[in-house]
Amino acid sequence: MLNNVVIVVAIVLLSEFSSAQVTTAPPEAALAVASNSVMKLADSTPISLRTKQALSSATAKVGDRVPFRVTEDVRLGNLIAIHRGEEAWGVITNVKPKARKGLAGILDISIQSTKLLTGQSVPLRAVEHLQGVGRSMKFDTAEVLADSRGLALPLLPLIRLEKGKDVTLDADARITAYVNGDVALDQVVLEKAQPPLVHRAGPATVFVFRPRLSGGALNAPSLYCGKVALTRLWNGRYLRVQLPPGRYSFQSNDNHSLELQLEAGQEIYIQMQMAPHGLSMNGHLVQVSNGEGEDETAHLSEMNARDVTKVSGVSLADLQALHEKK
Fold it and tell me: Do 6-192 and 204-319 show the same overall fold?
């Protein structure tokens, strides 16, 4: 018999603002807003965050300030309202380290605020649920007998009680927060705060990465661009490929094609996900945002150049060939 005690860690609400969807304003109100150059960052707008440091219920204290960083630009139309890389803050509101009798630790964090590109504060809220590990019982024997219904039962098992564990939140853990109430801002001021436009030129750069996961080190699916076999992508590795502008088809060994129209100077990030296929695993390619891709590849190792095909040595027609399903 297995008895698990699950401890839920909640990143709690800081206030009691409603999270209801924002209703559409009537036409007259929309005209008034436009004429006054007032814009609105709506309540419940999602904000993608990552933790900037590791946390544990063993060492954290109530009142500790917790730093986060924004991982994706938040836009209002064509304008950036909250810039990627902006800091966000939270505070620890409740801590209980692991206890005797198998009771796991508790760690509550309240997400508080971030800033607009103009420097104006934006209140945030978030609810995230993590699972701590409590006391459990394990059977330490492989001997079994069958009951009258034919079910396998343990024979004289040795019961081991595991101690509860402290709750930990790793550095770079993903959390989604939400704007807590409508935030009014001046469109003219926001336009003046916009970063300068970057005019890109030259080849496009495609990054293909495979997150580091346990148990997958011996499996390295092939990666193709058109008809060209680029490499076999190992666990915890990434490669970068520079290509002239144009349309390309990328695929791994799951017979799925990811087609991209590459522009001059553009950067694209592709994640290789591992999907079960019979007794083996296939690579499956998915495009992700540049913010997520940059965060993920920062912790990975780049493939050795000798293990990657030099695209400068193959024909553009082969690189741009459409994928043919088998």
Answer: no
